[in-house]
Amino acid sequence: MRKPAGKAVLYLAVIVGALVMIFPFVWTVITSISPGASxxxxxxxxxxxxxxxxxxxxxxxxxxxxxIVNSLIIAVVSTLFQLVTSAMAAYAFARMPFRGRGAIxxxxxxxxxxxxxxxxVPLFVEMKSLGLxxxxxxxxxxxxxxxxxxxxxxxxxxxxxxxxxQAATLDxxxxxxxxxxxxxxxxxxxxxxxxxxxxxxTWNSFLWPLIILRDPxxxxxxxxxSSLQGQYSTQWDVLMAxxxxxxxxxxxxxxxxxxxxxQGVAGTGLK
Amino acid sequence: MALSAIRPQTLESGSRPGGSRPARxxxxxxxxxxxxxxxxxxxxxxxxxxxxxxxxxxSAAWTSxxxxxxxxxxxxxxxxxxxxLVTDPATQQAFLHTVYYIVGYLPLxxxxxxxxxxxxxxxxxxxxxxxxxxxxxxxxxxxxVALVWRWLLNxxxxxxxxxxxxxxxxxxGWWSDxxxxxxxxxxxxxxxxxxxxxxxxxxGLQTINQDLYEAAEIDGAGWWRRLVSITLPMLSPSTFxxxxxxxxxxxxxxxQVYVMTGGGPNNSSRVVVQQVYDLTFRYGQAGMASALSWLxxxxxxxxxxxxxxxxxxWVNYA
Amino acid sequence: xxKTLVAAVAVASLAAVGLAGCSSSGxxxxxxxxxxxxxxxxxxxxxxxxxxxxxxxxxxxxxxTVKVTTTDYANYFTKLQTDLSAGTQADVFDVDAxxxxxxxxxxxxxxxxxxxxxxxxxxxxxxxxxxxxxxxLPTSFSNVVLFYNKDLFDKAGVSYPTKDWTWADEKxxxxxxxxxxxxxxxxxxxxxxxxxxxxVQQAGGQLLSKDGKKAAFDDEAGKTAADWISGKSGTVxxxxxxxxxxxxxxxxxxxxxxxxxxxxxxxxxxxxxKLPFGWDVQVEPGDTQKASATFSNAVAVSKDAxxxxxxxxxxxxxxxxxxxxxxRLKAGWELPATSDDALLKPYLTxxxxxxxxxxxxxxxxxxxxxxLGANSQKIxxxxxxxxxxxxxxxxxxxxxxxTTADQVTSLLK
Lengths: 271, 318, 413
Prior knowledge:
heterotrimer; B: MetI-like fold; two-stranded antiparallel sheet; 2 strands; C: alpha/beta; nine-stranded mixed beta sheet; two-stranded antiparallel ribbon; 11 strands; globular
């Protein structure tokens, strides 16, 4: 039983922390409605003459609507594929013994251990020979499998008690049934978590879309926003407007996924 | 359910779901069917990874045995690049800085994330909203975060030094001081990733059986005891995940260093991946960059392997 | 749960397959030649102006289509190098004076024959000439001049900079104009390699030896120049700890009327916009002689371009046509490298600053950009780093200059 004083202190700490967390976002929003503002001077909490002009300029400077559509398509398709491919591989690693399983899992992990900067050129050459330069497919393909996702889901599936698998097997279920009907529903929090982070990674991805997509109408959001940074000066107000627009879908997805991430224990089927 | 009933899972035996019978020679048809099933589960992710990551990695290994500026021909140099890197003081420095980053970052982000997850898992009013707030830095780009932190840590007009001066401490030069550049990056990085750790650990906390806590309370255990004896052990799969991932990513830290300090001042915050990037795209030495990447890869691999072998001792699976 | 998952996967696969075909078509369309052009010069506000020039070119050459891809300067060269590596580079692409030498020596630039050199400013054109062959055509040039805030000068009772000013005059004025209590600074000069190689020449020295194989700034001139650049920090301009050197810091300082003198490029003319105080520019003062840093951007034709004639036509149009000059001058989009001074007349009377003649006066004594070879970036990084250390007081000029000179010599290949 918590002492009321302890709870109050906890509340205070959490709220102060939240203010620290939200501050940069507030600064971003303020800058995005202050035409001509710069992010390198001391921030003003109350803008001098607030206006939505920077947002309108966004649509003027880059084909913004198209860019958002591009980013959405690539991120959504990529995330869906990541969910499917990762869940299936994770099940195999957690529940299906086979020779060399440990080594292959290590191989998966190994794909996370090399910096992307050094893979870009060979990957690009590969895409060229596949004829996928400047295509959505070229942007999506390298992202449809995620070692991160496999790792996350393997850990999650590992916490599902074997008894449940056994119970299903006694009823005559094969691996596919167990996977779809028993295991998958029980790792919803992890799936939701992967959906959020998978989407986040692809949505914010910069280097690969920069290289693979040539046509300005095919660009994704981070690349389009970088074009606002000129050789000698940066249009901070428009850039911040772009950042705000970029953050919103992510945040919405997170809020939506929250429901699944934080589930009651009632759903775990444990006694 | 008594605590002793929870034991690490052995997944060695049985090819049938839930099966724990000792392995026996099975008819060939069954084995083929099983192999096919495994393949169906694995191939959707294995093929793309092989094609789009492993393939380029091998290509990079080949490149590492040459001198190449990306444009002209590759010139064979064998293991010269590796020999150079292993004795090069700048490379050693880069590795040191990277390790420094990890040692500072990991405890901060884990303890902070754990505290957050615990606090926002309890019956605090408005916790769903607060969870959203704490997740905001995770979705904000480093361009914005770096600028904010540069301002916060500004030696003369920054908020942090102002607060310190109120309690009588003369704040350091932060990102303008070679001794404090890496701590500045560590602070900003831990702050930004708190929400990530929180989300992972929150998901993990959901799987802990509440009966355990009830049993412990009946036994008269205080909150510290409950934390150490129940929460942490039951959370160990998630903790393991966070730590392995944080180490893999920590060794490859780049974006925030690039935007916050550019590796300075005086190369005091230069990390390995920055070296890789510069070597590839600014100094025209893609071969050396590839060799450095593979060296880094080996380091990360060893560190990860150690954790996986220790897994049996440290991690409880239900 | 299962049904929605299957449905989602089906939709995703269909989408991916369908999208495989969603790419913009390239190549030529029935008799017309297509020239691909990759640039950074229009990024940051001049994309529409570039399009105007493209439209004018296509109108005058109905059998050629130009396809433009624009990237911001910071990421342009990463993209270019990746392209060159895979052979997907554009037919015509931008280079700048600093990067030209590397690409030319790598053999990826096509020699341009039959170029009418009389249309270009000789010194800028020659920057892109190697072994008697022309490999690039300059699209714009710019130099660094001294900006000054007239109001601050009036308030402090200091007379405006003249063409004959020397470092001593600049220093004296800067000290008089600095008022730390009021947050007003006298003189901002970036602490970077680009300022240094010019300062060495202004002090009568050279960065490299005549044969370009050794560093030559470990002498009186080099040390004086280092003190000149690094000594301003904290005395007449803010320190790096205050934010000096970060993006737009100096621009904001000048725009807010808190900076009396500012060494920066003429590209700032249009960026500054309307300021609430009087300002003008002057030729940069030298110590024993003047030396103004001049930069330029150029276009080159790829060795592998399919239709070299059409590509060269576009390159020439973009760098020397009257239409291009008009567009640039009207938009305040940098200075075209044309030799026709009559065409440039509108530039001189285009508004603030009044003394735009200083831009051309500065061309009388140009600071020669040293050829740094393959390790150019590393050398620049090392020099900038050393200057920063001196400015922060962590190293002494007498130690840092010889050490850096040795570093540079070992990097010169």
